[in-house]
């Protein structure tokens, strides 16, 4: 396994400062993600100790960190104390055996509060030790952030499945311990009212059932496929080069349909604060590879899955800008097998090093353009045929039924909320805001179900965008076309979700026109772009410019 030399950043490298409580001591921002990274999915932040990967010099904690740890433990003490008191009352009621209220009321509350209090103190103690170890690794390997995580340094990255399983059970148990008493006490009274309040209360136990179901499925996946890991051929993954290695997994049932691999660059951004805080993951780039069962071979864990991806030269490296802004690279493997489907995810290190080429290699992919070696997929959602006017590309309606259906559900939910707000005479601003957003969702839903695009490339390019094949025809001279490319404009889910690509044409006057929308298959989008470029003569223009 080879190890690259880190290319030191320039003066624009931004120092990392943890926000909120973590400003006093970085380990406070890591406690939860250190132990249960799947809940926040902040593996980069959890594993690098909150240090900006673009800066080779780790920070040194000050004495205020010790005070912050003490304050956090003091904060946890009332929870632990109230939990112990409640459990002692439960034991007293149980020993008396009289007609007093059931003992399990204080017992349940005691377990919840004790778990929060003692769990928080345990996380503080263990997290502080891990943070000290992290600081030592950073001091021993300045300028080499891929050596600041033990699994990255070893080139053997464990799957996130086990962490997901633990996080799923923790969250499911915590949710149900809180929602079950609420449903027990509130639900009977709410149902007697025979109004929407009773159905609203049912949401909480129903969500608890779904969380338990997810926890059981992740446990089944963890037990069935074992402890999988990705073994890198060299550390780190170098921008402009290949990310190579192998995934070691165990398949009780042979993946007859092969394995689907994908590598994604994800931008994670946290906005808002308090109850309005939300974290969004945007897929900046993704490449996908399909392996047939014949390309898999026996390995130490059972099956070896070969991995080889070309990283674009203009890609964004792994980086933690601050506690609310980070970039990470996810390697995923998926397979359709009997029982629980196989799905593994690995957080891989990708950096710009001295081995990064100064110019892209021939045939190399880029962040902002389709692969020049795109091949036609076996299945197309776009109809391509030859007509008297030229080559026609027809994007039919309802090509992404799952995306359209989910948008329809959201539109119905927001529409229902708008109705209830107006019916119960809520302040005008609320139904107006929800109503406007509902109209936007209705428009998007209509486009997904009924929207069509027709592109004909012959002596000129003709574009018709509308509903069910209608719309005004625009004609553009081929000489006026500067470029045609694809880009991610929407996605369903987070960093492991499905990105949707639009095909965009840029004219020489700077105007941009969309030639196709919401393509879920990257290979199809790349092939369509390459065909449109070829028919428009853009490849010949590029070659002429290069020769000049």
Structure explained in plain terms:
The chain is α+β, with helices and mostly antiparallel strands and about 550 residues long. Among the domains are: about 15-50 and about 60-140, no CATH class; about 385-545, Roll (PH-domain like). It has twelve helices and 22 strands. It has a five-stranded antiparallel sheet with strand order 2-3-6-10-9. Strands 7, 8, 11, 12 and 13 form a five-stranded antiparallel sheet that branches. The chain has a five-stranded antiparallel sheet with strand order 15-16-17-18-19. A hairpin with a 2-residue loop joins strand 15 and strand 16 (about 390-395). Helix 1 (about 25-35) crosses helix 5 (about 105-140) and helix 9 packs antiparallel against helix 10. About 35% of the residues are buried. Residues about 5-60 and about 540-548 have low confidence and may be disordered.
Compact summary:
With about 550 residues, this protein is of the alpha+beta class.
- Top-tier CATH class of the domain at 383-547: Mainly Beta
The secondary-structure class comes to alpha+beta
Shape: globular
Strand order of the largest sheet: 2-3-6-10-9
